[in-house]
Amino acid sequence: MDAESQKEHLKAYGITYWTLAKQEKVKWLLNYRGGSFLLPDTEALRRECQIRGVSFEVLSDAKTENILKEIESPSQNMEAVVLEKAPKIAVYTPEGSVPWDDAVTMVLEYAEIPYEKIYDREVLADELVLYDWLHLHHEDFTGQYGKFYGRYRAAPWYIQEKKDAEALAKALGYDKVSQEKLAVATKISDYVIGGGFMFAMCSATDSFDIALSAAGVDICEPMFDGDASEANYQAKIDFSSTFAFRDFDLEKNPQRYEFSNIDTTPFRRVNNDADYFSLKSFSAKWDPVPTMLCQNHTALVKGFMGQTTAYNSEVLKPTVLVLGENKSNGEARYIHGVKGKGFFTFYGGHDPEDYQHLVGDPKTELKLHPTSPGYRLILNNILFPAAKKKKQKT
């Protein structure tokens, strides 16, 4: 999985998932040649790699033993993590097409990793327990319809999306979309606290935390929910229930395409050509989880924008682990944390291979980006729940 030897980094994750789905165990060689995978050699596996265009090497037993010994050495920042099962994946997304793309859905399909779509009905019916891993993307859990009002309120797709959301909330027994979305966010929070794995990108990350913090507080203006917001609602925000952020200020202007000062998009001054973020290095033997999530063939990843591009470091909770950052801008791009018995990872930006994806832009063709470092970070999270849990030292 290094830069020089692998032609299809993204599809290699699909091969690994395919192997796990056949009840075969895999070893993820953290920090060894870009985070390589050690799989059992079979004719079927070789054939599958050839069909998908994935580069591979056949190792003798002696060579394999030497590699594992090298990894085990205390002098090497490497580790061999056993992957045991193919996690069952759910993607939270509404039915029908939308005028933007979901990077995770695209990369899952490109890598040929199976997933199921779920939405509010399924979440509120407690169906999240059926899944090991949940993805949220360009979603608004605050009931403000993505804050698209200022620019797109007359667009047919915006009008239809608002009608659909209101109809769904009513059908599920809620007076307002904001109330229904809060119930969904609460169910997702419970899922993570109970031991689930949640990965979110773009506006799903900050809007999720904002919705949890505003439980029981009306932060929506009349064009969103039909009545005025509560007076002085900023002072009523409760940060104790959020996953990643604290002490943030909400954006009160309904015309502005922004939720709060969690996102750095409005005040970042970064030239497109110089927009990169660096992945942090962790101890593979002592910190295997963040090491897994940062596996890549480069430590420098090209930045990309979104409604939520990156996170203001000043409003991160101290318990949050920063995996990737642009330190000179004071922004975190890729963060991870523990909530109850579960884990969450937030990834800023919309599409790792489309710098500034706008409404109506064509979808990204991943066949043109088979070695994308930005997309690899998404797929690291896919395999993370498959890792064998080590017994805690006492």
What would you note in describing this structure?
The chain is of the alpha/beta class and 394 residues long. The chain folds into two domains: 9-83, no CATH class; 89-386, 3-Layer(aba) Sandwich (Rossmann fold), CATH 3.40.50.880. 30% of the residues lie in helices and 15% in strands. It is built from twelve helices and 13 strands. It has helices at residues 9-21, 43-52, 61-72, 103-111, 120-124, 149-152, 156-171, 177-193, 203-213, 222-225, 288-293, 373-383, and strands at 26-30, 36-38, 79-83, 89-92, 116-118, 133-136, 197-201, 276-279, 300-302, 311-312, 321-326, 331-339, 342-347. Strands 4, 5, 6, 7, 8, 9, 10, 11, 12 and 13 form a ten-stranded mixed β-sheet that branches. A three-stranded antiparallel β-sheet has the order 2-1-3. It starts with 8 loop residues before the first helix and ends in an 11-residue tail after the last helix. 44% of the residues are buried. The model has no long low-confidence stretch (mean pLDDT 94).
Write a concise keyword list for the protein shown above.
single chain; 394 residues; alpha/beta; Rossmann fold; ten-stranded mixed beta sheet; 30% helix
CATH homologous superfamily title of the largest domain: Class I glutamine amidotransferase (GATase) domain
Overall tally of structural domains: 2
| Uncertain runs | none
Overall mean confidence score, pLDDT = 94
Helix fraction by DSSP (H/I, runs of at least 4): 25-40%
Q: Measured on Cα atoms, how large is the radius of gyration?
A: 21 Å
Distance separating the two termini: 35 Å
Number of helices: 12
**Major sheet details:** 10 strands, mixed
What CATH architecture of the largest domain do you see? 3-Layer(aba) Sandwich
Named CATH topology of the largest domain = Rossmann fold
Which word captures the global form? Answer: globular
